[in-house]
Design goal:
The radius of gyration is 62 Å and the shape is elongated. α10 crosses α11. The chain is an alpha+beta fold. The chain is built from 12 helices and 66 strands. The protein has an 8-stranded antiparallel β-sheet with strand order 26-27-28-1-29-56-55-54. A 4-stranded antiparallel β-sheet has the order 2-3-4-5, with no helix packed on it.
């Protein structure tokens, strides 16, 4: 017997460890049926063929599809098409563990490999197929099993292993798949077979499938789940080797819509694509969890390909497009008015029902009711509520509906109107006046009082006719109204409500503007959101002051459009740019605030009329342009499938636009997610302008991702975060560079850094070879300069020596010439003087002769004696002879022994002849010679004649020239 106290302890332990986790699991489920967010890519978007079949994803996260026109790739931003060489339809794709992509088309099989520019290039493998099997028509499936690659055509099964192709002895194959590590096929009019080695073996117990066409086979808890074309779902037990029906809720649906393909999905679900009914998700018990078709944004109900990516989201290849279905997200869409998809206005849980108000009316659904996605009628219309609804509030235990046609109280399936004068936005109970409430209307405030179980209209607040959509009541009972362009109003309720005081506030009272003001109640206090920043009202100063707590979270200039507190004290917010959650946790004496951004839903909300209804902390509804967006926290794993950055392309923009890199790095010839430093690309100096285009393989938040970049070696720091996906650099100087780019999500997840290593080579005149040539040229120039300098020096030295010698010689010659010139000058002076003396002596001789004549005529003895004395003084003969000898000496020296040569050659010449020769050499005239020789001119002529005879000259010879050349 367990004691009561111990029983209480055990009960508490059971609740904590067993019931609470179970409750958490139950609460984690979506509150109402919803459909995931779906991205649609039509043919006009991806610019290729209409049909898309197999889908694969590489290690970078890039998606590839087998499109009618070739292999289609998508990296979150850019689409690329890689056609087959024979331009035929691409039927199938598969990717191996090394990253090579195998592709099969019409009578074509091969694989895509990246080339030197990082671009996928198709290499056919048909030449490896035995020649007799090379005509195989379409390749419908390709499967990779370890190092083996299998592919199926309409009639044959091939295997590629170590570059050798083996053809299995099978005919008329209609199905192939990989199941539990084995290749499984179906031959027409037979059951299933599996490949082992080089043979096919029948799967015992499946012969009954001969009359059906197997579409997919999946592993399910140790058994095989088989889908057939006629809608049957069968379980095969390997132990019992028999087939049995798999009970599930989708049997009739699958029979009616025919399954095309089934794959394992996230959370142990099975995903089936159909021919006519879209996509179905089932759990292992056969319960249907999701149906997606054209009624909820699928482009087509005919599904050709299915693939779950690394982020646990689903891709669907369709007959006329591609859909990306976001399964790993906390958000789903809810359309309470079904195909109408009216604009969501308000949500409220009341009793056991969830009420959702749209512009088409008010709808409800029982919360405890199990929902079946195959049944699309999840909500029912509340009677009398058709039309534009606005707000849902509970006052006095009743659910009230604000409507374009007035005010309604909701009772069960019916809405009963109790006020019809004008449209009503919302309702609030008045704590200062029990049993009364205020309604914000199109034209002011209306007051109501509960009488006899009915709401009675007391009247409108006189003199106040402003639209009152934003109404809150503070702790003192004052009513606050925010108007979109008239400021803020405060109503102080009087005992008679219709006499209440209205106080307007605006820019003069501390608000940043009279425009764009909102107000909300957070933690029991009124928070005022202005055009810039968040404020509180200080009643002592009667002014609005900045709210430091909220402004520190959002920034003092942020325009906040909506704040909504959850039951657990967290705060949802909407700003001009973001939708998010302030996750507030108690940390001792302080509160820790985590800001989580969910901006992916921002542009789908009911702009200007956003409402947030937190049913629980984990389950929240947002009003949207079409229906509602439902938030379920536990349905989201933000860490699933880490995304990566990829280069779409890198192009040179100068001198011409040309592709440098197409995005796929390689290492040892294999695809890689990053570039090795040693694989740094080099570009000539003229190609120093590059444009980088990049993207992130985060497909659910692609429109809200932010990027930053830097060029190491050029930029000093990272750029600011932005949504820019391209960066261009021009006129980069020569050097080594690393272009780096990073990405972050609205939730703050950040990618690894993507890098591209490259080098701009110096110009040809500044290259290492040029510098080597410069060095060689400089060396040659220096050597040549030195050689020429030394040669010149030697030449100059020799020239100097020769010059010195010549100079010395010249100097000697000049000295000699100078001496000779001086000598000649002196000799000329002597000769001249001698000649003058000779003339003088002749003159004296003439005087003496004359004196002698006079002496003979003199009669006076004294005169005779005096004349005799004068004649004695003039001894001219002796002096004349001495003067002539002196003349001959100097003349002979001056003219290099002239007289010596004449005497030697002509010894019979007399002194008188020599004297005549000297006068002729001096080129004196006959008259001058006659004067000097004291003879007549005829005497000179006779002397010349006799001299010519002595010298042996003919009559034609010139005597003077002969003597001057002698």
């Amino acid at each position: 017997m367990i004691k009561p106290r111990l029983q209480k302890v055990l009960t508490r332990i059971f609740i904590i460890f067993f019931l609470l986790p179970l409750c958490g699991t139950l609460l984690a489920q979506p509150l109402v049926p919803g459909v995931p967010f779906i991205q649609s890519f039509s043919k006009a978007v991806y610019q290729a063929g209409s049909q898309n079949r197999d889908i694969v994803q590489d290690q970078r996260g890039v998606i590839y599809l087998a499109n009618n026109n070739g292999m289609l790739s998508y990296d979150g931003t850019f689409w690329k098409l890689y056609p087959l060489p024979n331009l035929t339809i691409l039927r199938s794709l598969a990717i191996d563990e090394q990253g090579f992509i195998y592709a099969g088309g019409q009578n074509e099989f091969g694989r895509f490999e990246p080339n030197a520019q990082g671009e996928w290039v198709f290499h056919s493998l048909c030449a490896r197929i035995p020649e007799e099997h090379r005509n195989f028509e379409d390749v419908w499936e390709i499967k990779v099993l370890g190092k083996e690659v299998y592919w199926r055509s309409a009639g044959k099964l091939f295997r590629l292993l170590q570059d050798e192709v083996y053809v299995y002895p099978a005919r008329n194959l209609v199905f192939m798949d990989t199941v539990e590590g084995q290749i499984m096929v179906q031959q027409q009019d037979s059951g299933l077979w599996y490949a082992r080695g080089d043979s096919l073996y029948p799967l015992k117990g499946t012969a009954s499938l001969a009359e059906q066409l197997v579409m997919s086979v999946l592993g399910l808890e140790g058994r095989l789940l088989i889908f057939t074309n006629d809608g049957h779902t069968l379980l095969y037990d390997p132990q019992q080797q028999q087939l049995q029906a798999w009970p599930n809720r989708a049997t009739s649906f699958l029979k009616q819509n025919r399954i095309e393909k089934a794959i394992p999905g996230p959370s142990q679900h099975l995903i089936a694509g159909t021919t006519f009914g879209g996509i179905l998700s089932l759990d292992t018990r056969g319960e249907v969890h999701l149906l997606v078709d054209q009624s909820n944004e699928l482009l087509s109900n005919k599904i050709s390909g299915l693939f779950v990516d690394k982020s646990r989201n689903l891709w669907a290849g369709l007959e006329n497009g591609i859909n990306h279905i976001q399964l790993n997200t906390p958000f789903t869409k809810v359309f309470p008015d079904h195909e109408l998809k009216g604009t969501g206005q308000a949500a409220c849980a009341y009793g056991d029902y969830l009420y959702l108000a749209t512009n088409n009316g008010l709808y409800r659904r029982k919360l405890s009711q199990a929902f079946d996605p195959l049944s699309k009628q999840h909500f029912e219309l509340v009677a009398n509520s058709r039309g534009q609804t606005w707000g849902l509030d509970t006052v006095g235990g009743e659910l009230l509906l604000g409507h374009n046609y007035g005010a309604f109280v909701v009772k069960g399936k019916e809405a009963i109107r109790f006020y019809a004068d004008q449209g009503v936005w919302s309702f609030d109970a008045l704590p200062t006046h029990p049993g009364t409430m205020v309604a914000g209307t199109y034209f002011g405030l209306s007051f109501f009082q509960k009488r006899n179980g009915q709401w009675q209209h007391l009247g409108e607040l006189p003199g106040f006719e402003e639209s009152s959509r934003f109404v809150e009541i503070d702790r003192q009972g004052d009513i606050w109204i925010a108007h979109p362009y008239r400021g803020v109003f405060r109503v102080i309720p009087a005992e008679d409500l219709l006499r209440s005081e209205v106080i307007p506030y605006g820019e003069q009272d501390g608000l940043p503007s009279d425009l764009h003001n909102h107000l909300f109640k957070i933690g029991g206090e009124i928070v005022f959101c202005g055009a810039r920043g968040i404020f509180y009202f200080d009643k002592q100063q009667q002014r609005f002051l900045p709210n430091a707590r909220f402004n520190s979270m959002f920034g003092p200039d942020t325009k906040v459009r909506r704040l909504q507190e959850t039951p657990g004290g967290h705060i949802w917010y909407i700003t001009e740019d973001e939708v998010g959650l302030l996750n507030i946790r108690d940390r001792a004496l302080e509160k820790e605030v985590e800001k989580i951004n969910f901006s992916a839903i921002k542009h789908q909300l009911n702009a200007g009329f956003e409402q947030i209804y937190p049913y629980r902390d984990e389950q929240v509804f947002f009003t949207a342009e079409q229906g509602f967006i439902q938030y379920t926290a536990s349905e989201f794993d933000p860490a699933a499938g880490p995304f990566q950055l990829v280069f779409n392309e890198i192009r040179l923009t100068q001198p011409t636009d040309s592709l440098v890199f197409a995005g796929v790095f390689t290492q040892q010839g294999k695809p890689s997610v990053f570039q090795l430093v040693e694989d740094r690309r080099q570009f000539p100096h003229a190609m120093n302008a590059l444009r980088f285009s990049y993207s992130a393989t985060n497909y659910t938040e692609a429109a809200y991702l932010q990027y930053r970049y830097r060029l190491r070696g050029f930029d000093k720091d990272w750029s600011a975060w932005s949504r820019q996906k391209t960066k261009e650099y021009t006129n980069l100087p020569a050097g080594t560079y690393d272009f780096e780019v990073q990405c972050r999500t609205p939730l703050g997840r950040q990618s690894d850094t993507l890098r591209f290593y490259f080098e701009i080579l110096p110009p040809w005149y500044a290259s290492p070879l040029a510098y080597l040539l410069y060095a060689l040229g400089m060396g040659v120039a220096i050597f040549t300069l030195v050689w020429f300098s030394m040669r010149k020096y030697r030449n100059l030295k020799e020239d100097h020596i020769q010059s010195v010698a010549r100079s010395n010689k010249e100097i000697g010659k000049l000295k000699q010439e100078n001496v000779q010139a001086e000598l000649r000058h002196k000799q000329r002076e002597i000769i001249s003087t001698t000649m003058h003396l000779v003339q003088k002596n002749e003159t004296i001789h003439q005087i003496r002769d004359r004196l002698k004549a006079i002496k003979k005529m003199a009669r006076d003895e004294k005169v005779t004696q005096e004349l005799h004395r004068l004649i004695q003084l003039l001894k001219h003969d002796e002096f004349l002879d001495d003067g002539w000898e002196q003349f001959m000496f100097h003349f002979n020296q001056l003219h290099g022994g002239f007289f010596n040569r004449l005497k030697a050659d002509y010894p019979h010449l007399t002194p008188k002849d020599l004297k005549l020769c000297a006068y002729l050499y001096m080129n004196l005239s006959t008259k001058e010679i006659a004067s000097l020789m004291n003879v007549t001119v005829r005497g000179v002529e006779a002397s010349r004649y006799r001299l010519r005879k002595k010298l042996g000259l003919d009559k034609d010879d010139n005597l003077t020239e002969f003597l001057m050349q002698y």
